[in-house]
Design a protein that fits this description.
Layout (H helix, E strand, L loop, with lengths): L1 H6 L3 H21 L6 E4 L15 E2 L2 E2 L3 H4 L1 H9 L3 E8 L5 E7 L5 H15 L12 H5 L1
Antiparallel strand pairs: 1-5, 2-3, 4-5
Length: about 140
């Protein structure tokens, strides 16, 4: 997996990866000169069966590993900005889904505030309310 791949890297490759991460960070920070916040799905697929480790393909594209299918989440982790995940109702199959609120670097309180405001709006919409687990059905 990822750890094994990282152990195979030499110092030149590690240095190159750090430079690339810095470039991605700088470009992503520049985005916040144009927008206050980025709101996007937490992942790009609907929830899948609990006994499935990860989706094996998305839109006909094979997923090579667990991280591949969560590329949006992984990419945002690389830039290091504060991210607040927010439950956002149920998908067409009745499974819960969520969104991410991403703010400028070091703006954790801001992203929490935006997420809280969205949660208040969503709570008034039956389609977007945070799902409540049916403990009785789950216990059966």
């Amino acid at each position: 997996g990822n750890v094994a791949a990282a152990r195979q890297m030499d110092l030149t490759e590690v240095s190159s990866a750090h430079r690339r991460q810095l470039q991605l960070y700088q470009r992503f920070q520049a985005l916040f000169d144009e927008v206050d916040v980025v709101i996007c799905p937490s992942v790009t697929v609907f929830p899948f069966a609990f006994d499935q480790l990860y989706p094996t393909e998305i839109d006909g594209v094979p997923m090579t590993n667990y991280v591949h299918w969560a590329g949006l989440t992984s990419a945002l982790t690389v830039v290091g900005n504060p991210i607040t995940a927010l439950p956002c109702g149920l998908d067409p199959t009745g499974m819960p889904f969520g969104i991410q609120v991403i703010g400028p670097s070091h703006s954790d309180r801001f992203t929490l505030g935006v997420a809280h405001a969205l949660e208040q709006v969503f709570s008034r919409d039956a389609l977007l309310q945070q799902p409540v687990a049916d403990v009785r059905a789950l216990s059966a």
